Amino acid sequence: MFPRIFIAGVRGGSGKTTVTLAIISILKKLGLNVITFKKGPDYIDSGWLNLFSNNPCYNLDTFMMPKDKIIHSFISRAKGKVAVIEGNRGLFDGLDAEGSVSSAELAKLLKSPIILVVDCTKITRSVAALINGFLNFDRELEIKGVVLNQIANARHEKIIKDSIKKYCSIQIVGAIPRFKNIKMPERHMGLLPYQEHERIEEAKEFIQKASEYLEEDKILQIVKNAPTLEYNPQNKEIPPIGKGLKIGIIRDKVFQFYYEENLEELKKHGAYLVFINSLEDKKLPEIDALYIGGGFPETNVKYLSNNMELMREIKDQADKGLPIYAECGGFMYLCKSLATEEGEFPMADIFPFRLKMFRKPQAHGYVIAKIFQNNPFYPLGTELRGHEFHYSKVINHEEFTYCLHNSPLEITNNFTFKMLRGEGIMESLDGVVYKNTLGTYVHIHALGTEEWVMGILRKARQYKEN
Question: Is position 335 annotated as part of the catalytic site?
């Protein structure tokens, strides 16, 4: 029941995604229907898992989502398929010394067998000690196999394998060499999103070569022998409050950071999604609300600024009260301007912030935000659990004298989120509002924040009927 496998690493950057994609390729080649899951706040890896599995990738996160919803989400989507789950960071890495919200915690919750990926760069016999540490650190985990990554040569491989066989009670299910000429494309946030990769076939070639160094039979046995996972969910009636509503989604090579569950929750409540391209479309279609997710406006800023028609249209609709919810890259798109190494470029100018890109992250990690002011989408007192990861920040805040209850600006920009954990837009504040438009650096997950879906659909209904 629910054949599955969890791919974990000894640290971030150990090669989990490469191994995960290679395992997906193997299972697909065997004719299996593969469904993928990504642990933690991640859009880029999820996109690659989606591409290789030909199925949507879903995110499971014990910080942003209640455990019962994680199990329900997994079981409802994995039924009748083979599930491949990719962890994040190192297996035991979490928020504290107890490993809260770690990959290990999720693997135990899903009772999933684990394949451990070890980067063997500049290490030989010590790999055995490292693996034993992982095997003995938490005996509740089912670490069933190990993949050796970045093997330098035959001698390197032999020493490591002999050491593991002598000192460890675990099977080796693969040994991937250090490829010199091909690798997965990378950028400042990790892997390059597949939507921006111009030579997808090269990436597929790399994964195909990597998969040839994995032991298909051993991996398949681990997948098939996953323990029984039982769960009896209470069937909850979903009110069709979105029936007849059209929700615009800007989704293209620029704005691509969407949890699939967020879009599915809107559809489950009856809403119809209308997709918009920020680079090609000149006008908004007939919609009742607009959702702009995250992405990389900074790498496409010239092309965005060349389509001022759409930005002027969005600003005009914001002035008229169209409900707009914009996360991270979407928030950046709605600001006054965005400065990169190529210069400063005008954006939609709904919010009066000038933003600048920096070489180092300006905020990175899980956040907790409390709603302390009225806004279009969230009830007062709501506590949001999400994450932020951005290299931009406001550079013209000294121009403004902010008053939280009655802004002196011609364009009202009230902050409505108080950051209990995380940085936010500035001075531990986030969730800036102009009429029915809300911009935030905070990414939320709909399965952990039901108020988000209800808020968008409620406001869209009001707008449609007025």
Answer: no
